Amino acid sequence: MAILQYDHVQKLNDHQRVLYDIIAEQSQVSPGELYEEYWKRVEEPKTRRMMRNHHQKMARYNLVRPEGEGRGREHHHVF
User: Fold this and answer.
1) Pair 38, 44: CB distance under 8 Å
2) Is the pTM of this model over 0.90?
3) Which of 7, 69, 73, 75 is the most exposed place for a label (fewest CB within 10 A)?
């Protein structure tokens, strides 16, 4: 399983990788904090909607997992 997840991490695009790295560094992070940190790290940040799409992809790959609902939702690092 870890090899498969490693392969998924390698397939992330630059923006997805930044999001993944932020979640991995902080272990868990709220959407607002994630987007704020993402904006600091990239030259041309994508929209919040695109960020959510990226997060959903990483969740399907079992790299991160969302927990909670609405404003209380947090993103957790899995792999």
Assistant:
1) no
2) no
3) 69
